[in-house]
Every structure is written in structure tokens, then in C-alpha cells.
């Protein structure tokens, strides 16, 4: 059996958001039901290179399909300036659970962007007000694009406020979407007053204040993925319906990791997991809710679910480059 090599373009062209969002929801549900295996994300620190490696393996049984895989990903902040490379790279190995044959090796960077947007959309669908029409995004990097693409699948977004210190990145974002949405540059406060807010920055000191957030805003806190990162004021977390993706990851490296380590937050402040909500063990948005927050660290089950969608369509469309990795086809 051959292995399919899929570059970033192949991944993007075979991962329609309309299919990715329900696939990621299925992954959250499988995890909650106990139909998934996901060892903790492991880190290899590389202080000599100001970076790290992270390994993310998982298996899930979604009912009508099952899948397994591992993502090998990094964060190297010096890459853009020193080597003209992205800060984050990644490789996804998607395997057949029955035979262990690697069905595909694909660009993990594009996959991560897509599944991260889809995860925010799942949370938004269950936690945002039903008639949400405005989306604020803080951080105009690559993740901002998939936030809008995904969230507009679950809400009729009309107005988009994008906030970033880099004016060129803001201009690029506006150029990309001005024909589809009423999109404009704004302050963090402008973005935070929208019906839905997604924060996608790597900051270690909160940049969104409690006073800036709308009374019923749903927030997707997507930026924190390592110890010390922290985008939202503690008062926002304390005042919100706080939903997490995974207890171990969020307390270690999610948006709540800093106030958690300082004793500002504890178990009583966490409403539940997104898995509990999508399986209807706990309700999502209710009429009595004010602010809601989804603390997303990114789970390996999401990568596997997204890789499943990509592989199925790439095979149907004859995309990618097939090769005989083990020399068994002769």
C-alpha cells in the first residue's frame, strides 16, 4: 500500500470548512464518550535554538469511521528573521488503525490552522448568542483567517473587526475579506465588544480587559499554547461560563494556566469541557448567560479528524504524490 504525500495546498484544497467543523465536533464527542486515546502532548525544549518540539498522537472512533495519527510540531520564534521560515512548522502522519500503514504524510501547519478554526466554530456554535452577527479578532496572523472562515459557517457574520499592531497584516486581512464581509480595522476594545471574539496572539500579559468585553460576548481564547501565555484579564475568566478542551492541557498551557498556577482559578471556576457540551451532558449557551470563554489548547484528536477529511478527499481527487514508503508494492 502506498503512502500519500500532501503539501499545504493539497491539505487546504481537500479540507472544506463545512465538513471540518462537524468532524471536529465528532472528535470532541468521541473523546468525551471515551472512544478516543490521546496521550498528553509531550515537549522537547531546545533552549540553544530558542524553540521546542511537540508530539501529539491520538486515535479516535467516531462511529462511522476511525482514525489514528501523530503530529510533530514546533515553535521556533527566531525562524522568520534568521532563516526566512515560519515560526511554526508541522508534519502529520495519518495511519490506518487496522494495519498501521501510514496512509498519508501531510503538512501539519496548514492542518493546524484549519482544525483550530474549526474548533473555535464548534465552541461558538454552542456558546455564542444565536443571532450573533459581529466577530472581533485580535491578532491578524495566519490563524485569524481560519477563525473567520470557520466561525462564519455557524453564525451569520456580517461585521468583522480586526485588531493588530502590525498595520500591514491588518491591511492584508481586510483585502482578503472585504468582498465578503463588512471588515474594518479597530482597537482591541472595538473587537472585544463584538458578539464573538477570537484572540490569536502569543502574548504573556493580558491584552483584553474585562471592561472592554460585551455583556454577552463569547470569546475563543486560542493563542495560549504554552506555559506563561495569557491573553485575557483574570476578571473575564472569573466572570464567564468557562469551557475548556482538555483539563490537563489547559491547566498546563492554556489561557487559564497563569491564573491557575497563581491560585486565582480552581476547579470550581471551570463550567465544563466542550466535549460535555457537544454530547449534551451540559447545556451550552442559555438565556441567563453573560460572557462565555472557550479555552482552546488544540488537541491531537482534532488533527486526526481533520487529517481523515483531507485524506479521504485527496484520494477521491487524485491529489498529492503517492510513494512506496516501505518498498512493499513490488
Description:
This protein has 330 residues and is an alpha/beta fold. It folds into two domains: 3-111 and 300-323, ornithine cyclodeaminase, domain 1 (2-Layer Sandwich), CATH 3.30.1780; 113-295, NAD(P)-binding Rossmann-like Domain (Rossmann fold, 3-Layer(aba) Sandwich), CATH 3.40.50.720. Helix content is 35%, strand content 24%. The protein has twelve helices and 16 strands. The strands form two sheets. Strands 1, 2, 3, 4, 5, 6, 7 and 16 form an eight-stranded mixed sheet that branches. Strands 10-9-8-11-12-15-13-14 form an eight-stranded parallel sheet. β3 and β4 (51-61) form a beta hairpin. The mean pLDDT is 96.
Please give the radius of gyration in angstroms. 19 Å
In CATH terms, the superfamily of the largest domain is: NAD(P)-binding Rossmann-like Domain
Categorize the overall geometry: globular
Classification by helices and strands: alpha/beta
What is the domain total for the residues?
Answer: 2
CATH class of the largest domain: Alpha Beta
Helix amount, in percent? 25-40%
Order of helices and strands: EHHEEEEHEEHEHEHEHEEHEHHEHEHE
Which key terms come to mind for this protein?
330 residues; 2 domains; eight-stranded mixed β-sheet; globular; eight-stranded parallel β-sheet
Topology:
Blueprint: E1 3-6, H1 8-13, H2 17-33, E2 36-37, E3 42-46, E4 51-61, E5 66-75, H3 79-83, E6 90-95, E7 102-107, H4 108-127, E8 134-138, H5 142-154, E9 159-163, H6 167-177, E10 182-185, H7 188-192, E11 196-199, E12 218-221, H8 234-239, E13 241-244, H9 247-253, H10 257-261, E14 272-273, H11 274-278, E15 292-295, H12 300-316, E16 321-323
Parallel strand pairs: 1-7, 8-9, 8-11, 9-10, 11-12, 12-15, 13-14, 13-15
Antiparallel strand pairs: 1-16, 2-4, 3-4, 4-5, 5-6, 6-7
Helix pairs in contact: 2-4, 2-12, 4-5, 4-12
Amino acid at each position: 500500500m502506498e503512502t500519500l504525500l500532501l503539501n499545504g495546498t493539497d491539505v487546504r484544497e481537500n479540507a472544506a470548512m463545512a465538513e471540518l467543523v462537524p468532524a471536529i465536533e465528532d472528535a470532541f464527542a468521541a473523546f468525551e464518550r471515551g472512544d478516543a486515546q490521546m496521550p498528553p502532548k509531550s515537549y522537547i525544549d531546545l533552549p540553544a535554538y530558542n524553540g521546542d518540539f511537540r508530539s501529539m498522537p491520538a486515535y479516535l472512533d467516531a462511529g462511522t469511521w476511525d482514525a489514528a495519527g501523530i503530529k510533530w510540531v514546533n515553535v521556533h520564534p527566531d525562524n522568520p528573521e534568521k532563516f526566512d521560515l515560519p515560526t511554526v512548522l508541522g508534519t502529520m502522519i495519518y495511519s490506518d488503525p487496522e494495519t498501521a500503514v501510514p496512509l498519508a504524510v501531510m503538512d501539519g501547519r496548514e492542518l493546524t490552522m484549519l482544525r483550530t478554526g474549526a474548533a473555535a466554530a464548534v465552541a461558538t456554535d454552542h456558546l455564542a448568542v444565536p443571532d450573533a452577527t459581529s466577530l472581533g479578532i485580535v491578532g491578524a496572523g495566519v490563524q485569524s483567517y481560519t477563525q473567520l472562515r470557520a466561525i462564519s459557517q455557524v453564525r451569520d457574520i456580517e461585521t468583522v473587526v480586526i485588531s493588530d499592531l502590525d498595520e500591514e497584516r491588518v491591511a492584508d486581512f481586510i483585502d482578503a475579506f472585504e468582498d465578503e464581509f463588512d471588515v474594518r480595522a479597530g482597537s482591541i476594545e472595538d473587537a472585544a465588544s463584538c458578539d464573538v471574539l477570537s484572540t490569536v496572539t502569543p502574548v504573556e500579559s493580558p491584552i483584553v480587559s474585562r471592561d472592554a468585553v460585551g455583556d454577552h460576548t463569547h470569546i475563543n481564547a486560542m493563542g495560549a499554547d504554552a506555559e506563561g501565555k495569557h491573553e485575557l484579564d483574570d476578571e473575564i475568566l472569573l466572570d464567564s461560563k468557562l469551557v475548556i478542551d482538555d483539563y490537563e492541557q489547559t491547566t498546563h498551557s492554556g489561557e487559564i494556566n497563569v491564573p491557575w498556577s497563581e491560585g486565582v482559578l480552581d476547579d470550581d471556576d471551570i463550567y465544563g469541557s466542550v466535549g460535555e457540551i457537544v454530547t449534551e451532558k451540559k447545556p451550552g449557551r442559555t438565556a441567563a448567560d453573560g460572557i462565555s470563554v472557550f479555552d482552546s489548547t488544540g488537541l491531537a484528536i482534532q488533527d486526526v479528524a481533520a487529517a481523515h477529511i483531507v485524506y479521504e478527499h485527496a484520494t477521491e481527487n487524485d491529489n498529492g504524490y503517492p510513494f512506496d514508503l516501505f518498498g512493499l508494492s513490488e
